[in-house]
From TrEMBL:
EC number(s) on file: 2.4.99.17
Source species, domain of life: Bacteria
Protein name in UniProt: tRNA preQ1(34) S-adenosylmethionine ribosyltransferase-isomerase QueA
Species of origin: Halosquirtibacter laminarini
Keywords, alphabetical: Glycosyltransferase, Transferase
Top-level EC class as recorded in UniProt: transferase
Length: 349
């Protein structure tokens, strides 16, 4: 499968800049894999496609305020610092991306906050854009973390093309977010409201939770035509016994198992036994799913409508079938669905 197969023309006006007024009232394009039939619904209609003892699997990662703006010592040049992951708690070491990267060298100091109350020193170059920073902070760890997060802002993807607003702190987070560590939201989950979750529960749908801390690798451009040559960034995942039990019971009873989002699908497919059952796991995954691919666990999925040439779109087309998904995207554009992080959703059954 070649990269160029995932190129399509997406009008920029269809990229959503704000979420729907109510979480569960985005539009929903429903694709039946067997028949190729397409339906146009509202997201809360997802309820109609699941029955008692079916399972929905959610990614309960929580986004932290990962984007900071600092000033370089001496020159005062503004530098954007994107916190990727904490490397060492005691030494206050963080793996970060900096922009513009060419202005930052090992040994440079960066100052944050109106009063320069937070200082960081560059101690390593990890990639062309990446650096390792040591934050020079003497207080207790909890105090440091709070101070750091107070300086940060919600890390909206640049594609949204606007400044962060007050509502983003809440809306760029799923209602079931628990475990902090993501620098991007698992966007399919943003459509679930408390009311919808309650109605699913009343209908008898079982929930399972896994954790994948979403990294920026999802947004990294694929720069090889031969997709087998592309390497995904590793992301940390947890699959606990409780989720394994819920999913495997549903699988044995031939129930519908729905992966809510590409991050859930990647997590499930990263820990499967030879008999196709889910296994507990704690570690890292760099699994890259593109067509053709034989899915082992989930038999339905919810996803947003993704941008051209993205690894997310590749996974969706592997699950829904390349031709069917490309046709669905074509229809979504004609029908003026909203694409991207804050856009509309797609259910593949």
């Amino acid at each position: 499968m070649k990269l160029s197969k995932f190129k399509y023309k997406l009008p920029t006006e269809l990229i959503a800049t704000h979420p729907a007024y109510n979480r569960d009232e985005s539009r929903l394009l429903v694709l039946d894999r067997e028949s190729g039939k397409i339906e146009h619904k509202v997201f809360k209609d997802v309820l109609d496609y699941f029955d008692n003892k079916d399972v929905m699997v959610f990614n309960n990662t929580k986004v932290f305020p990962a984007r900071l703006y600092g000033n370089k010592e001496k020159t005062g040049a503004q530098i954007e610092v994107f916190l990727l992951r904490e490397l060492n708690r005691e030494q206050r070491l963080w793996d970060v991306l900096v922009d513009p990267a060419r202005k930052i060298r090992i040994g440079n100091k960066l100052y944050f906050g109106d009063d320069d109350s937070m200082v960081a020193e560059v101690i390593d170059n990890t990639t062309s854009r990446g650096r390792t920073l040591r934050f020079l902070y003497d207080g207790p760890y909890d105090e440091f973390k709070q101070a750091l997060y107070n300086l940060g802002e919600t890390p909206l993807p640049k594609l949204i093309g606007r400044e962060v607003e007050a509502e983003d702190a809440d809306r760029y987070q799923t209602i079931y977010a628990k475990h902090e560590g993501a620098v991007a939201a698992p966007t399919a989950g943003l459509h679930f409201s408390r009311e919808l979750m309650k109605r699913l529960e009343i209908k008898g749908i079982d929930f399972a939770e896994v954790t994948l801390h979403v990294g920026l690798g999802n947004f990294r451009t694929v720069d090889v035509e031969d997709l087998t040559k592309h390497k995904m960034d590793s992301e940390q995942i947890w699959i606990e016994d409780k989720a394994v039990e819920v999913v495997n019971n549903a699988k044995k009873n031939k129930q519908r198992i729905c992966a809510v989002g590409t991050t859930v699908m990647r997590t499930l497919e990263s820990s499967v036994s030879t008999t196709g059952l889910l296994k507990p796991y704690e570690g890292w995954t760099n699994k890259f799913i593109f067509p053709p691919y034989d899915f082992q666990v989930a038999n339905s999925m919810v996803s947003n409508l993704h941008t051209p040439l993205s690894t997310l779109m590749m996974m969706v087309s592997a699950f829904g079938g390349y031709d069917a998904v490309m046709e669905a995207y074509d229809i979504a554009i004609k029908e003026e669905y909203r694409f991207g992080t804050y856009g509309d959703a797609m259910l593949i059954i």
